[in-house]
Every structure is written in C-alpha cells, then in structure tokens.
Amino acid sequence: MHALGQVIAFTFTGRVSALRLEEALNGQLPPDIAICDLRPVAEEFHPRRAARYREYRYTVWNGPRSPLRERHALGVRAPLDIDAMARAGQAFIGPHDFSAFGAVVEGRSAVRNVHAVRIGRKGQLVTIDVRANAFLRGMVRRMVAVLLEVGHGRMNETEVREALAARAPARNGVSAPARGLCLRHVALGRPAETGQDTDGDD
User: Fold this and answer.
1) In angstroms, rounded to a whole number, what is the distance separating the alpha carbons of residues 24 and 47?
2) pTM
3) Using a CB cutoff of 8 Å and minimum separation of 24, what contacts does 166-174 make?
4) What is the CATH number of domain 51-188?
5) Tell me: the pLDDT tens digits for 94-152?
C-alpha cells in the first residue's frame, strides 16, 4: 500500500522551528518516505480519533502488460464493465456491518459508514475511490476484488448486496493486491463517529 495523505503525531521537546524540524527529519528518512507538512498540535490530538473520514484510491491498469505502470497499479488484461462496477459500488454506501469485507477485532464493532464509492476511467487507467468514516483492515482491497468480479461479469449488484448482508467472508476473503492501493486523504476535524476506530486499510 502507498500513501499520499497519511497523518501521524509524535512528541518533540526541542526548540527548533517546525520548518527546521521537518528538514532535519526528511534528511534522516529513507527515500520512499517524506514529511510534507509539519505543524504543532494540542497535546491531546490523536489523528485516528480526529479523522472525519479517510479516502483511498485503488488503481487498475486495464491494458496490455506495462511493467512501469503496474508498479503502482493492478494489471488487468480483460475489459472491465465500468458502468456495472459503479452500480455495484453503490451497495456499499451508508452504514453497514462490513464483516464480509475486512478483519474484525474481537469486541469491536464492524460497522463502518461508507460515504462514497466512485469508479473512473481515463483511457486504460481505472480508478476506484472509496471514502468512509473508518475502515476495517483489508476492507478496501476486498471491496475492490468483488468490484472487479462485477467488472468481469461474474457478479452483479444484487450479489454484492447479498455478500455484504451475509457477513461471511465475501468470495472466500479474496483481496486485490496491495500495490494498487493508496491512502489519498485524511480529513481532520470533529472526532470520528462514536464507537468507531479510524483503522486504515493495508
């Protein structure tokens, strides 16, 4: 999985400015990690509890084999029915028990509120954007796996709704590969809905 908009918090007791600290940290981080916007926050701030929603994007290269593009996208050769995928994606909208689409921690609720599922295509590049108040572990990749089944004509919207309601692992828990997944945005503000953890996908 990749991330463009991950938010973290840490404690620092030094006296340098935020800009100097950001530069110092980036000088020590490996080349695949960078701090883009460092700022002071209240001591009680916790990014998981302060998130209003998170948005993930899953990218599919729906064309001939392309090693460069497929470093960060899932390569799918057969044509995809994007309209059918978009219709089926609406089955996930709203608060649902997502036990069928993610790992459930014992003693915690599996209910998550999905705000939007958007399917787009530009040429041979297909994007699946999912916005929710919180996610179960593996939830987006399992949703994508089922939507791809729809795109190939092996499932329909009704079957997606039935899989969600059944709460047993959908399609035996099959997940899309992690390389196509990217956390694009975390919206901070009021705390997440009561009783819900803003767990991320993986």
Assistant:
1) 22
2) 0.85
3) 166/100, 167/97, 167/99, 167/100, 167/110, 168/99, 168/100, 169/100, 169/142, 170/100, 170/101, 170/142, 170/145, 170/146, 171/142, 171/145, 171/146, 173/142, 174/142, 174/145
4) 3.30.70.660
5) 999 999 999 998 889 999 999 999 999 999 999 999 999 999 999 999 999 999 999 99
Give the DSSP letter of residue 103: B
Residues 30-40 pLDDT 10s:
988 888 888 88
Distance between CA 34 and CA 25 in Å, rounded? 8
- Tokens read off for 81: 């029915």
Residue 89 near residue 147, CB atoms below 8 Å: yes
Token readout for 136 is 């179960």
